[in-house]
Every structure is written in C-alpha cells, then in structure tokens.
Amino acid sequence: MLEQRYRWKNKHLREHTDVLDGNRAPHILLKDAVYLNQVFRKWMKANIWIYDDRIVYVGEKLPDKLDGCEIVDCKEQYLVPGYIEPHSHPSQLYNPLSLSHYASNFGTTTLINDNLVLFLQLEKKKAFSLLRELRNIPATMYWWCRFDAQTEIQNEEMIFSHGEVKSWLEHDAVLQGGELTGWPRLLAGDDMLLHWMQEAKRMRKQIEGHFPGASEKTLAKMMLFGADADHEAMTGKEVMSRLMQGYTVSLRHSSIRPDLPKLLDEIQELGIEHFDKFLFTTDGSPPSFYEQGLTDNMIRIAIEKGIPVIDAYNMATINIARYYNIEYLHGNIATGRVANINFLEDKENPTPVSVLAKGKWVKRNGIESAEFAKVNWDEYDFKPMQLDWDIEANDLEFSMPFGIEMVNDVITKPYSISFDVSYEELSFKHDECFLMMVDANGKWRINTLLKGFANKLCGFASSYSHTGDIILIGKRKEDMIIAFNRLKEIGGGIVMTENGNVIYELPLTLNGVMSSEPVRELIQKENEMKNLLQERGYPFSDPVYSLSFFSSTHLPYIRVTQEGMYDVMNKTVLFPPIMR
C-alpha cells in the first residue's frame, strides 16, 4: 500500500536544479548561517538556499537570481536540524495535528507516531486517507505499525488480521513494526507475530521493542527474533546490557518515567563516551508534561549533564534519521533534505526562537504562527460520541470478592475486599472507590472496587481509556450516574461530579478519546483535573496515564479488559464481563 511512491515528482526535481542553474530564485536564502554540520561534527558557516520544502544548496555561493526571494540574515544565530521524536503516542488527550503544531514551536518538526488509536478507531481506508492529509501540514508525520492491542480485546484476531497488519506495514509512511508490548507471546511461540516481524525486516523497516526489566537472555532472544531498539532501560546497567546485545537505545524522559538525568549520570559513570546509538524520546506524555518543551528540553538536560553539545543535538536529529533510514530527508542540514531548521540564540539553549518546517515559518523571532493546518475530523469518522444507552441503578451492583489496588500511577495489583459494598455510598475514611468499566456500546460491564485512586471522589466518568470504553469511578453511585450523563451530553470526555454538581469537564469530541482543542488549552485543563483529583486523595502524578493503563496488559498485575478481569502474569481471565 504505497500511498506516495516518491516525495518529489520529476517536475519538482527539475525545478530544484533550475534554482542552482540560476533559472529560478530560491524562496528563502539563509545568509551567513552558522549551522551544525554533523559530517564534520563542527559548527560551520554557509549560505543555505531553500525552495518550497527542500534545501537545494548549502555552501559559500549566493544565488544568481533573487526575484521574490526572502533573504534572512542569520548572524548571531545558530542553526540546527529540526528535532525528531521517534516514539510518539499522538492521542494523549491531544490529537496528531494539535500535538504536531505545538511540538513544532519547540523545534520538534518530525514525529514518528503510534498507529494504535487509528487502528482501533477507524477502518483502514479512512485511516490511510487521514495519513495522506497529514502529509500537507508543516510538521512531518511518520507512523509505526502495531502488532497487538496492548490489552485483551474482543475479536482481536479479526482486528489484528494478517491482511490489516500487512497493509499498514506496506504503507510508505510506516517506518517500523511495534512497539512489541506483546513480546511474551512471541517467546511463547506465536508464529504470526514472528511472521509480521519477518515481513517488517523484509521491507527494511525497524522493530521497536518494549522490554521493561528484561534479562540479558531475553534481550538476546528478542534481538535474534528481529528487534532493533528499546526505550525501556531504567538504569545505566540496563542501557549497557541493551548496547551489548546490539540494540539502539532510546533514552526516555516522560511523565511517568522522567529518567533522563539519572540515565545520563549512570551511563557516564559506566564509561560510555560514544553516543551514536542513543536516541531521545518523551514516550507520548500527557499535555502538562510538555509545558516547558519537548525534545528541546531533553537536549538541554543532556548538555547540563555534561554530554558534548554536538552529541546532545545528534541524539535528537541525525542518530534518529540514520536509525530509521531517512537520513536522506531528515536529521541534518544538507543539500536535498527537507527544510526543517531550528534557529537558536545560543548553542547551549536548544529551544528555538524561529522554526522552519517544510520551508514554512511556524515560529518567527519568538512569535508562533497562528496558521498551521486544519483537519475536518468528521470526514474521518472522528466525531462526538453518540451514547444511546443509560446507566441504571442495577448496573452499579458490586459483589466481586477482590478489587484492584494501585501501586503507582500505572501498576495495579489485586486485593481482597473485606467489607460490605452493597451501599449507595462508600466512606471517605478509606481510599476505596467503586469502579466500573462499561462497553462504549453499552453491551457489557465489569464492576469491582479500586483502592488507592482517591478517598473523597464522589463521581468520575471518562471515555478516555486504552480501548475507548467508559470508566466510572467514585464513592457515590448517584454522582457516578450524573457524571456519566454529563459525559453523554458533551459527546465523550472526562467529567467529575460532587454532591450532585458537575465540578469539572473536559470534552473529548473526537470519538471520546481526543480533543480538537490546542495543546496549550489542554495543559490548563489537565492541570485543573490533576489538582481536583489530588485534593480528593489521588496520590500520584499522572491520572491521564492511570486511566489509559487500567486496561493495558503489558504491565502487571491485574487489569480490567474487554475480556474481563485479567491476571497479567498468568494470562488468565479471572472474571468475564457481565452482559447488560
């Protein structure tokens, strides 16, 4: 499924060479630019010619023709390639378009995105049409191809069919298979998963691992199966073990794993002096984590931790482009590359004052462009949720002998319920709440107790979840129903209620899982939600990830899934869902 065989057609290539011959003027001339040349590993001076979205020349010469050309004096600035995020989850309240707009203002002009939401929410034709439209925005969007749902879903073998996976792998915007959250199945003998990996390798595409806590032997096995990189190292020793087995290592700094400062300290203590096999990733963090920046913040941390400045930039640019075999387009400032360029005031301040993305100014002298791009989400079946069913009092009956206890933001374990839960309200003197996950179509439900989420939360409803099903949490059943009813009215989202009143709402009008609002607004709304939850006893830092990971079976120990209450370690459904 090759959606675009060549980036530039023959007529475009002829126009590009016409600029060199003096028959056409470039559109932008960056004059006297000091830029990072990663071949020579030094800062060099040149004139940079840009035509449309491409760098057509880097060197000492000036164009013969300058009619209509925008000439930019680059004195007292330093130019680096646009940053690349190699492991983006573009649906953490924001959507792919709003994330790319926000990210580009901090210099991250290329994102390599998880396709899971598109895979689960859209039929293939619509998804591929959306990918085609997203080619037209200033930021550059590439994708992964998932091999599993990262949870137990109904009819998974039909959703993740061989034909569907192979079509995604063949798409030219897809650069890798993975991430391999279902790797235990591979070790257990899943030959279909192994076949998909073989197909990805045949197509010269990478395989991204997901191997938290993996032993040296497991890492070696996964390398033999075809894995190329992993982003789950949490210590310097884990980084070293991955390098020893031949992996490229993504150093992660995310909302639930802000590990970069520690990792950089520990890898330097271990004597690692060469950084060509390292990438940076923020691993799809929620909006508020990006308040101070994205990849630019990681580069800053690296420089502060004593990483050589050029290596710090390389881990966000050329290293990623080389790993994904897109160096001929991205990751460096050179003839023939896409014109993604960041303009810095200081070599050690990676947050740009100006940004070119595909030859367009998305930020100029500190002022962000109001114009970016728009998508008609309705056209791609991303619409407000239409919930034509109700939560009744008999849905909120709780009789399960055990519940789910939160160990941290994302790890959950089972615990025995030791008191009568047949009341309409639970006491505020403990941290146990009612928890119900209900099918988005109203066909089934799972009821249990949730310990450790909050102690004063009356009602909470969220359509934001890993699978798009509805999560209800609270101490008061009446407030849970009110929260659900308000969620229906706003077409999906997150709602909090207290004593019969709605105290917070965040509409997620794109199928109940994403917002169409700008990231800056989502930062404020997420911070408001976190503050309200923490006032009501939420003890952790990241409720967005907590909501997403209630169903995620790639982490221990117990999860609520479409198949029922699921024991991750024993791969067993403990209680099936109750049909409504």
TrEMBL record:
Its EC number is 3.5.4.2. The keyword Zinc does not apply. It comes from the Bacteria. Residues 410-571 form the Adenine deaminase C-terminal domain. Pfam families: Adenine_deam_C, Amidohydro_1. It catalyses: adenine + H2O + H(+) = hypoxanthine + NH4(+). GO terms for molecular function: adenine deaminase activity. InterPro entries: Adenine_deam_C, Amidohydro-rel, Metal-dep_hydrolase_composite, Metal_Hydrolase. Residues 78-362 form the Amidohydrolase-related domain. Keywords: Hydrolase. Belongs to the metallo-dependent hydrolases superfamily. Adenine deaminase family. PANTHER family: ADENINE DEAMINASE YERA-RELATED, N-ACETYLGLUCOSAMINE-6-PHOSPHATE DEACETYLASE. This is adenine deaminase. It comes from Peribacillus cavernae.
